Amino acid sequence: MTSSTSAVMTTSPAFSVSRELVERVAANLADVRRRITSTGRELDSVRIVAVTKTFGVDVVHAAAEVGLTTVAENYVDEMESKRGSTRDLALRWHYLGSLQSNKIARAAKNADVLCGVSRSKELDRIARERPGMSIYVQVDFTDWAQRNGVAVSDAAELVERGRQLGLDVRGLMTVAAPERDAARRAFLATDELCRDLDLVERSMGMSDDLEVACECATSEVRVGRALFGPRKV
User: Cys-Cys crosslink for 134: which of 114, 168, 203, 214, Cβ 3.0 to 4.6 Å?
Assistant: First the structure.
């Protein structure tokens, strides 16, 4: 393959992605991996979830080209559109956003894992739409009104309800406050709660705080800007 930035690489019969984009994402991925290993973690112990929200479908192809296997979206319309046009790529899709009742069916149809589950009625609907689906329960440690997530004190009940409904409750997801000490407290508490509830996955850490999350036993980090650059608004 040529190294010219003007060259074009075809990642599927229907779509071409620029060599420049692939090389930029590859360089950024190498830096994310360096940040992970700087914490003492092995690369195979931390899944890198590429968050493609607000970016074009070209970054999904670029992510697949550099070897990433899990991508994520925060909006149902974007996930539906991007997944529909990348069916030939071997990717797993995580849905990170809050679950609006009128879009749960579409979210469940298009995602492999629903990560923002925070209410019992969402569990009921998911179980009807897609029995046995894999989910994460989102836990909120901030008490911010605009932040999605169940209160820590109610997390165990929600996890148990999901299990009773036959859903595959894989783990917990959290979005920490920006202050590093607060993030560490939230991540440590999430890890402890996962151990108490016998959950496998800890989805903690994003572009700005992934090192803290890795130090606190996360199983995956959700990165967008660190891979693709500033978001398109």
Answer: 168
> What is the mean pLDDT, run by run of 10 residues, along the chain of 233 residues?
33 72 98 98 98 96 97 96 94 95 95 96 97 97 76 95 98 93 96 97 97 98 96 72
β-strands 8-12, 15-18 pairing: antiparallel
Amino acid at 117: V
d(CA 96, CA 114): 7
What is the DSSP code (8-state) at residue 12? E
Give 3-state DSSP helix, strand, coil % of the chain, rounded to 5.
45, 20, 35
CA–CA distance, 119 with 154 (Å, rounded to integer):
10
Q: Find, among 217, 212, 215, 182, the residue nearest to 202 by Cα.
A: 217
Length of the chain: 233
Residue 83 to residue 98: CA distance in whole angstroms: 19
User: Which residues neighbour 172 within 8 Å (Cβ) at sequence distance 6 or greater?
Assistant: 136, 137, 138, 139, 155, 190, 193, 194, 197, 199, 201, 202, 203
* One-letter amino acid for residue 152 of the chain: V
Q: Count other C-beta atoms under 10 Å from residue 107's C-beta.
A: 25
| Dihedrals phi, psi of 23, to nearest 5 degrees | -65, -35
Domains and CATH numbers, the chain: 15-228 (3.20.20.10)
